[in-house]
């Protein structure tokens, strides 16, 4: 519907977590999806395409689960893509799909963030893919990015800004430094993907539970904090908010929807 409505001449689609959370079982469906997309009626006027899929989930050191799709309308002439190894542009013809080991593909740059960037140094599928294009003498980079999420609500609410916000900021800086360094000519760039933007958890909790009292629940075996319960000071000490590593359960969900959540 979007293609029919806007009829773009150059279309870029950046995907993250390609194959889903259970990517080992789901990757088999990816190839079918890509083939159906390329052959769909909506895409019949796009006679050139480049598809880059990071499907090599067995390589923990490199796997990002990123997918970058680029479609060029038949009316566009003289479209070139940059070869980062040869350091020159090559004319784009036909439709090509690249997957598995994208590290050996010279038409892009793919990186997973350094391990010390990851919270608690635990590998996850976060990184970026960069391609460079030239259309009618206008050169530009397209960067598919996936930044870090808040791994634990209990950690996110401890400081303002949260430690995760700092990690996202550091990772974004890493990407920007890479795409404007001295290895290649500087060109304009567009960075889009999943920035994993989050509200300031501490400020949100303090706003929602300004007059509440907090109860801390700890694990019996480790004494680790596993749950925070915020109760109203009066009104029979009604539970307002329950906070766990993966749970944010506020009693009045309308506050997040009314007036586009301006209350928080």
TrEMBL record:
<protein>
    <recommendedName>
        <fullName>inositol-polyphosphate 5-phosphatase</fullName>
        <ecNumber>3.1.3.56</ecNumber>
    </recommendedName>
</protein>
<dbReference type="InterPro" id="IPR000300">
    <property type="entry name" value="IPPc"/>
</dbReference>
<dbReference type="InterPro" id="IPR039737">
    <property type="entry name" value="INPP5A"/>
</dbReference>
<feature type="domain" description="Inositol polyphosphate-related phosphatase">
    <location>
        <begin position="1"/>
        <end position="263"/>
    </location>
</feature>
<keyword id="KW-0378">Hydrolase</keyword>
<dbReference type="GO" id="GO:0046856">
    <property type="term" value="P:phosphatidylinositol dephosphorylation"/>
</dbReference>
<comment type="similarity">
    <text>Belongs to the inositol 1,4,5-trisphosphate 5-phosphatase type I family.</text>
</comment>
<dbReference type="InterPro" id="IPR036691">
    <property type="entry name" value="Endo/exonu/phosph_ase_sf"/>
</dbReference>
<dbReference type="GO" id="GO:0004445">
    <property type="term" value="F:inositol-polyphosphate 5-phosphatase activity"/>
</dbReference>
